[in-house]
Structures are given as structure tokens and as C-alpha cells.
Write a structure and sequence with these properties.
The complex is a heterodimer of chains A (246) and B (693). Chain A is of the alpha/beta class. Chain A contains 8 helices and 17 strands. A 5-stranded parallel sheet of chain A has the order 2-1-3-6-7, with helices on both faces. In chain A, helix 2 crosses helix 3 and helix 4 runs antiparallel to helix 6. Chain A starts with a strand and ends with a helix. With 693 residues, chain B is of the alpha+beta class. In chain B, strand 4 and strand 5 form a beta hairpin. In chain B, helix 2 packs parallel to helix 4 and helix 20 packs antiparallel against helix 21. The chains are: A alpha/beta (246), B alpha+beta (693).
């Protein structure tokens, strides 16, 4: 049985989650709900829930303040938010789950399913560290959380030279010449890194524009990156690419 | 045997001036008038002796002696020298060479003391002539050359030619035929330079060339040509001796061509001329040659008749060489006559004479021939002992002559070889020149071709350069134009999308309102949540002109969910994407199908009483993406029949505009087709297939 609490300053939002949790009463028990940051912190420390539905905006403070203040992090967090773009990016980077309000039944189901499949939350404190780091930092110094075979890997965006697609996997090439194989599509990385000066030059290649050493003209041409790898530029992407590096 | 000595060559040397009786006569007139012993008379005497030289040597000698006496008396050295020369020349003509030589040396002393080069040259010429007569050809050539060098210094072409003529004669006697011909031709050229072709000198050189060709035996055509030319020239000049000699030579050529009668006729003519001017050597020569010619007719009587006439003249002239030849032919001819004792005796006598005289002159040929014929004669008499002796001597002579013959043969071959070689050289030279000329022509052609080609190439380059420049310029212009158009199109599209959103929003809000009014809070909440989600995605997509088909289909799916919920599951739907399409990599304008689906739902399905179905298909056809919306609703015809106001859907008109703009922008032919089916409507939207990568 999974125990859960809700921290949200709006009653109708709390009610909505309660409603949504009804079909899962056999697996998830709601053991408390709080409407302020402080009460939430106390609630976490006293109740020690497995999962916290955490609102981002709680009066004049945030859900991140809750995370900063709690001492132990042996729980999963599912943020709930209406429209905080900055926060959503941070969640994505840190691979922290979130639900958008008004919460869709289907989305909620996916989140609960994911929760059930997680055996333990041993890496969560690291995730939280990454999240808290990402909230405060500029894009390039943000860290992305990458689930690998061995566990979670935290990579600073500026460490990534390029990503290469391999069907449903992606290989990440880092500055220190490491290759990391991730079971995520290149598209997901493109979505994640598009605002960090990354550009998908080819169906199979996402590159960090900061690390281009040379562009060689051609039909589409190709770029040489600082690790001396040469990456073909797709003909259709050439114009956009040139605009991006222009 | 007969053909062994077919000719007696009579070569003459050119003289300074043509002898003309007329001139001699006028000079004699002058001499008679001018009796005073002064330089004028001396001059006349000298001129007269000079002219007598080739006409009458006896008179010439007398006159020259008078001149010498007068010159000595007047102590006029130049004229004395002149007189000496004239006397010497007359001596030579008379065959008294050694006397002439003495006079020449005397003259040379005078010229040396006077430092007169020209005078020396004349003397050298005379000395050369004498050595030539003595068959000392090397010495003769030496003196001719001395003369030539002096005349060359004086740039006297005519005298140079004369010296060359002498050298040529000496070379001919030395059997150096090709050299001789070369020298003679050089002489001809000098005469031709001075336009001195209708003269005795020129004719003489022609004669000499004719003689050589005649001797070579294999160039008789050339011999005939030169001899005829010589006869022609000399007839014009009126130099009788020369003419007789050239006729003699022409006759010899005919003889060689085995036309003895023609030869005899010409010799006769020659003889008459010689007799006319009292040129005894010429007469003798003509008589001898006529005689020899008759032996080959054969007419022995006539042969003997003519040969006998030649004998006393040669005796008188002391020309033993020719004398031995005449004697031999006489002997041989007598032997040819019917064998009588007297004839045999006469033959023996003449042959013995021939042998004796030829021994003196060292003529091996005649010696051998004479002995051979004598052997034959003694054989006829039955005196085999003597016959054998003569035969033995003949054989020995033949052997020693054979080597001479061999030498001659070798010489002949050498001459022939040199000739051919020269001909080859000339041919090679001609070929070379021809080749050079051809090469030059080729080169010119090549240059011409090259310049034409390079011109054409340059022209083409210029044209293509212009073309490329224009294309590039056009491309730049086009690009700018295109960029501008894109901007306009994008703005228009954005505006259209902006119109799109409220349209959708208000439709949705109407639905929510519907739930609320029916007091179905639960459904309203779910509906609104879905609506929020679709709004979120639509807003995200609206920033972009094109989104991936995958994303667009997600939104469509969401939209269909909402609508089916609102219509209480009155219809089912299916989205089918062709396997050939990579939804992630295919780009489409966002929500392009949405208005058609909306139309199907609200105008097709909602009015239908039974449950409806909508099929959405995405296919690839060539380079077009075909999106279809297929419903089994009431269709447009029914709509028209029921009379319900067929408002032209705002969404559809907007979509059509979007596609038009897209066509303009991408230069494609996207299209929308609405097909009325038996039941329902089928909409086909053709879009250009665009790939992200």
C-alpha cells in the first residue's frame, strides 16, 4: 500500500486529486492534505509518505521550499501545476513527475502506473538536488537526469556535445569522451534541449551548437565538432541550421 | 673492237674575243693607213695579232713579232707584254707550247714589275692552258685557280667563268666528271648573271658539258641536249672553229646513239667550216671521225679515203696521239677488206705504225689493239709464231690496261654513284623543303584552327559566365522575393490560425455550457479537462507553421474524444496511417483536417438517426500526402434537400485559404476535394509531403 499526502493551497484542487484517487483506493491511501508550506513540511516529516502531490505555487511560496526544508527524501514527488513554464522545464530536466491542472484522468492514471512500477526511490534525493539546482541556474548549467542501465546519471547540459539516435535509444557523447546509452528517443532529448542551443541537424543527430568547430559546405554539408566527429547536415535542415548558427 | 675508239675529242679553249674576219680586215686597213711607228700602230698590231690567233697563226706570229719589235723600240712595257701574250697564244694555236711558255714567263716578269694583277691573271691563264695541253692537269688547275682568285678579287664574272671553264676541262681529263660538270655549270651561271648567253664563251661551256655527258655513256640524252644548244649558240656568234667543234661533238653523240649517217653528215659540215677558216686540227679531226663512222656503216673504201686524208694533217701538226689512232683504224679497215696480199701488207704497215706511235705516246689502248689486230693478221697469213707473239704482247698490254680499265670503270661507277647521290640529295632537299612547307602550312592551319577553337571557347565561356552571373543574380533576387513572400505567407497563416483558435474555443465552450445546463457536472468537468488539454497543445503548436504529423494526430485524437463524448458516443472513429509514413518525420500544417472532421460530426453524423462512423486516413501518393475524412453521415445533398441553411463553414474556407498560401509558398499543388458518396461525404486533402529531415 502506497501512502500519499497532498500539499495544495486551493481546496478544489485537493478535491480534484481526491476524486481522481478514488479508483485507486486499493493501492494508494491518502493519509493527509495540507494547504501551507510549513504544515506540508511537518506533515511529510511526521507522516513519512511514499508520495507527495505537491503544488508549485503555494500562497507566496513554492513547493521547492518544501523540498529544501525536509530532511529526508525517501519519497516520490508529483508536482501539480497549472502553467509555470520555468518549473515544467526543471521537472523535465530532473525527470521529476508532474501533472498539469486541470488534471486529466488519463494523465493521472499514467502517473500512478509509473509510481507503482517504481521499486524504490533511493535516487530521489539526487533528483531533488538536481531539481533544486536547475530551478535556480541558467540553462547551460542545468543538469539533466538520465536514466541508464546502472541507475540515474546527472549531466550538465554544457557537458553534452551531441546525441545520436539509435532506433528507440539515444547515445549521448560528452566532453570527457564518455558515451552514454539512454533508453529514450532522440525526439525527447530534442524537446528537452531545444532551448539550450541544441539543434537537430539530421534525423539521427542532435548537436550542441556551442561545440561546432567547422562547417563544411555541400549539398547539406557537414559539421565538425570539437571532438572531431563529423556530422552530416540534412538537406532540409540546412537553411534552418545556418539561421541557427548565423 | 670497232667501237673502242669511236671519237677523237677535240676540245678547244675559249678565246678572249671572237675571231672575225671582218675585224681583221678593218684592222689591216687601219695598219696600211697608219705607217708611223708610234703607239697607235703598236696598238693596231697587237689587236691584229690577237685576232689572228684563232684564225691564222702564221699571220698572227708575224704581226705579233712586229708588235714586239715596235714595243721594244718605244720601250712600252705594257704593250710589249700584250704582244708577248698574243705571240704566245698564236704559238699555242700552232701547237708550239714550250715556245709559248717561255714567252709567258717573260710577260709575267713584266706584269710583276708593273704590279699588274690582271695582267698576271691573263698570263696564269695562258700557262694553265699549256700545262693542260701537256696533260699536267693538276698544275693547270693550280694556274687557273690563281687566275680565278685574281678575277674574283676584281669581281669580273666573265673572266671567272673563263677560268672555271679551264678548270672544268682539266677535271674532265682527270675523269672527275661530276666535279667537272659542277664547275662548268658554275661557269654558265656567271655568264647568265652577266646576260652573256649568246656568246662563244657560253656556247663553248655548253659544248664541254655535252662532251662529258657523251663520255659518261649513260647520259646521251643530256649530251644531245647540251651539244644541240651549243651548236645553236655558236651558229649565232659566227665563231666558226667553235661551231665546227660543237658539230663534231654533236656528231659523236649521234655516233654513240648508233646513228653513223647522221654523225657523218654533221662531221662533214664541221669539216667544211674548218676548211673555210683553215683550221687544220679541226679538219683532221672531222676527217678521222668521218672515217671511223664509215667503218661502222660499214663502208671500208670511204673509211680509208677519209682516214688517209687525216694522216698528213696530223703529221703536219705533230699530233701523234691522234695520228696513232688514225693509223690503227686504217690498219684495221684494211684487214677488214677482202683478204689480198696487198691489203694485208697495208694493214700490217699501218698497224705497225699505230703500235710504234702509240708506244711513243704511251697509249696502252692503241698498243694493245694494234697488237691484237696484228696477231689476227699473222694468223690469217698462217704465221702463228708471230701471231702468238703479238697476242702475248696484246694480252700483257690488256692486263696492264685492265687495271686501267678497272680504274676507269670504278671511276665511272663512282661518277654514277655521285650522280645518284647528288640526285638523291637534291630530291631529299626538295622533299625536305616540301615537308617544311607542308609543316608550315599545317602549323598555320593549326594556329588558325587553334585560334578559332580558343575564340569559340572564350566566347562560350563569356556566354556561360554571363549566364551564370545572371542566374546567380536571378537566384539572389528570387531568394529575396521568396523570403519576402514567405514572410507575407507566414503572417497570413498566423492570422488564419489566430482566426482558427477562437472558432474552436467558442464551439467547445458551447459544449461545456450544454453540459452545465443539463446539470451534468461530472461530464462537464471531464470535458473541460480535455478541453484544457487540447487548448494547451493547440497553443503550443500554434507557434509553428508546421508540426509533426504525430503531434497533429494526437490533437485530432483528443478532439475526436471530446466530440464523441459530447455526442454521447453517437459515433466511432478510426485514424489509420499508412505504414510508409514516418509520422515523426512528416510535417503538416497544424489542425488542417480539424474543420472537415467538425463538419462531418456536426453536419453529417449529428443529424443522422443511427450511429455514425468517421474514418481518418493518411496516405502517401507520390510526393503528396493525402489525408481523407470519410463519414457515413447524411451528406450534403440531404442537407440541401432538407433545406437547412448550408452555411459555408468558416473553418473550411480558412483551410482552403491556408492550402492556397501553402501552394504559393512551396510551389506545390495542394488541393481539397469534397466527394459526395451514396452515404456521407468524403473529403480529400492533398498536401505536399514534407519531411523534417
Amino acid at each position: 500500500m502506497i501512502t500519499a499526502i497532498i500539499i495544495d493551497d486551493e481546496q478544489h484542487c485537493t478535491d480534484r486529486i481526491k476524486n481522481l484517487l478514488k479508483p485507486y483506493k486499493d493501492t494508494i491511501t491518502l493519509i493527509g492534505d495540507f494547504s501551507t508550506v510549513d504544515s506540508g513540511i511537518k506533515g511529510i516529516e511526521n507522516l513519512k509518505p511514499d508520495v507527495v502531490f505537491l503544488d508549485v505555487q503555494i500562497h507566496d511560496r513554492t513547493g521547492f521550499d518544501v523540498l529544501k526544508s525536509v530532511n529526508h527524501h525517501a519519497f516520490e514527488v508529483i508536482f501539480t501545476t497549472a502553467f509555470e513554464a520555468f518549473a515544467i522545464q526543471a521537472f523535465k530536466f530532473s525527470a521529476v513527475d508532474y501533472l498539469l491542472k486541470p488534471i486529466d484522468e488519463d494523465d493521472f492514471k499514467l502517473a500512478i502506473d509509473k509510481l507503482n512500477s517504481k521499486i524504490e526511490a533511493k535516487d530521489f534525493s539526487k533528483k531533488v538536488d538536481a531539481l533544486l539546482n536547475n530551478i535556480s541556474k541558467t540553462d547551460v548549467h542545468k543538469k539533466i537526469t538520465i536514466p541508464t542501465v546502472e541507475g540515474l546519471e546527472f549531466l550538465e547540459v554544457s557537458d553534452i556535445i551531441r546525441c545520436e539516435a539509435d532506433v528507440n535509444y539515444t547515445t549521448i557523447f560528452t566532453k570527457d569522451a564518455k558515451k552514454i546509452l539512454v533508453s529514450k528517443t532522440l525526439k525527447s532529448f530534442e524537446a528537452l534541449l531545444a532551448n539550450c542551443n541544441f539543434f537537430r541537424v539530421h534525423n539521427s543527430h542532435l548537436i550542441n551548437l556551442d561545440y561546432i568547430k567547422k562547417y563544411t559546405k555541400g549539398k547539406g554539408g557537414y559539421v565538425t565538432l570539437i571532438d572531431n566527429s563529423t556530422i552530416e547536415v540534412s538537406t532540409r535542415r540546412k537553411d534552418d541550421f545556418l539561421k541557427a548558427i548565423g | 673492237m670497232k667501237r673502242l675508239l669511236p671519237t677523237v675529242m677535240l676540245l678547244f679553249l675559249s678565246v678572249f674575243v671572237c675571231a672575225q674576219q671582218k675585224e681583221i680586215d678593218s684592222l689591216n686597213e687601219l695598219l696600211k693607213k697608219h705607217k708611223e711607228l708610234d703607239t697607235i700602230r703598236l696598238n693596231i698590231l697587237n689587236s691584229l695579232s690577237y685576232h689572228y690567233e684563232s684564225v691564222n697563226t702564221e699571220h698572227g706570229l708575224v704581226v705579233s713579232d712586229q708588235a714586239i719589235a715596235l714595243a721594244q723600240k718605244l720601250n712600252y712595257k705594257e704593250q710589249l707584254a700584250r704582244a708577248y701574250i698574243n705571240k704566245a697564244n698564236n704559238y699555242i694555236s700552232a701547237g708550239k707550247d714550250s715556245l709559248a711558255l717561255k714567252l709567258y714567263y717573260k710577260t709575267l716578269d713584266i706584269f710583276n714589275s708593273k704590279n699588274s694583277l690582271e695582267g698576271s691573271a691573263k698570263v696564269f691563264y695562258g700557262i694553265a692552258r699549256i700545262h693542260q695541253n701537256w696533260a699536267d692537269y693538276n698544275t693547270a688547275i693550280l694556274y687557273y685557280n690563281k687566275g680565278f682568285q685574281i678575277f674574283e678579287l676584281k669581281q669580273d664574272n666573265l673572266k671567272m667563268a673563263k677560268m672555271l671553264n679551264g678548270i672544268g676541262i682539266c677535271q674532265m681529263y682527270s675523269n672527275e666528271y661530276s666535279k667537272a660538270i659542277e664547275t662548268f655549270i658554275k661557269a654558265l651561271r656567271y655568264y647568265e648573271t652577266e646576260n652573256y648567253t649568246e656568246t662563244t664563251e657560253y656556247g663553248i661551256v655548253l659544248t664541254n658539258i655535252g662532251i662529258i655527258y657523251n663520255r659518261m655513256g649513260n647520259k646521251l640524252n643530256l649530251a644531245l641536249k647540251y651539244n644541240e644548244q651549243a651548236v645553236e649558240v655558236l651558229k649565232k656568234t659566227g665563231y666558226k672553229i667553235g661551231l665546227s667543234n660543237s658539230l663534231n661533238n654533236l656528231a659523236n653523240t649521234y655516233d654513240n646513239l648508233k646513228q653513223p649517217l647522221k654523225a657523218i653528215e654533221l662531221q662533214q659540215e664541221s669539216y667544211n667550216i674548218c676548211k673555210e677558216v683553215g683550221y687544220k686540227a679541226g679538219m683532221a679531226s672531222a676527217l678521222t671521225n668521218i672515217g671511223i663512222a664509215y667503218t661502222s656503216v660499214p663502208d671500208n673504201e670511204k673509211a680509208i679515203h677519209y682516214l688517209k686524208q687525216a694522216l698528213p694533217i696530223y703529221n703536219e701538226l705533230g699530233n701523234k696521239y691522234n695520228l696513232s689512232i688514225v693509223e690503227y683504224y686504217l690498219g684495221e679497215t684494211f684487214l677488214e677488206m677482202p683478204s689480198s696480199k696487198s691489203n694485208l701488207l697495208k694493214a700490217e704497215y699501218h698497224l705497225m705504225q699505230a703500235y710504234k706511235i702509240s708506244k711513243e705516246t704511251g697509249n696502252l689502248q692503241i698498243q694493245a689493239d694494234a697488237n691484237n689486230t696484228l696477231s689476227k693478221l699473222f694468223g690469217l697469213r698462217g704465221d702463228y709464231k708471230n701471231a702468238l707473239e703479238f697476242k702475248t704482247v696484246a694480252t700483257v698490254l690488256k692486263d696492264s690496261m685492265a687495271s686501267q680499265d678497272l680504274k676507269d670503270e670504278i671511276t665511272r661507277l663512282e661518277v654514277k654513284y655521285e650522280y645518284d647521290k647528288k640526285a638523291d640529295l637534291v630530291k631529299a632537299e626538295h622533299d625536305k623543303n616540301q615537308a617544311l612547307a607542308n609543316a608550315e602550312i599545317e602549323r598555320q592551319k593549326l594556329i588558325k584552327k587553334g585560334s578559332i577553337i580558343s575564340g569559340v571557347v572564350l566566347f562560350l565561356l563569356a556566354i556561360s559566365g554571363l549566364f551564370l552571373y545572371k542566374r546567380k543574380r536571378d537566384a539572389v533576387t528570387q531568394k529575396q522575393e521568396a523570403e519576402f513572400n514567405t514572410k507575407v505567407a507566414n503572417t497570413e497563416l498566423k492570422a488564419l490560425r489566430a482566426q482558427m483558435n477562437p472558432h474552436f474555443i467558442f464551439n467547445s465552450l458551447n459544449s461545456v455550457n450544454d453540459y452545465i445546463s443539463k446539470n451534468d457536472v461530472e461530464s462537464a468537468s471531464t470535458y473541460l479537462t480535455k478541453f484544457a488539454k487540447i487548448m494547451r497543445q493547440t497553443l503550443e503548436n500554434s507557434n509553428q507553421n508546421e508540426i509533426s504529423l504525430e503531434d497533429d494526430l494526437k490533437v485530432l485524437d483528443l478532439y475526436l474524444q471530446i466530440e464523441s463524448m459530447r455526442l454521447k458516443n453517437k459515433f466511432t472513429y478510426k485514424i489509420k496511417v499508412d505504414d510508409a509514413i514516418d509520422t515523426e518525420n512528416t510535417l503538416v500544417p497544424p489542425l488542417i483536417l480539424q474543420p472537415f472532421i467538425e463538419n462531418s460530426i456536426w453536419h453529417g453524423i449529428s443529424k443522422k438517426e443511427s450511429e455514425g462512423h468517421i474514418d481518418i486516413g493518411i496516405k502517401k501518393e507520390g510526393n503528396m500526402l493525402v489525408c481523407t475524412v470519410d463519414d457515413n453521415g447524411v451528406g450534403r445533398t440531404l442537407n440541401a434537400a432538407t433545406g437547412s441553411t448550408e452555411n459555408k463553414s468558416l473553418g473550411i474556407s480558412i483551410t482552403k485559404s491556408r492550402i492556397d498560401i501553402l501552394n504559393k509558398k512551396k510551389n506545390t499543388n495542394g488541393d481539397v476535394k469534397m466527394i459526395d458518396k451514396e452515404q456521407g461525404v468524403r473529403v480529400e486533402v492533398m498536401l505536399p509531403l514534407q519531411l523534417a529531415f
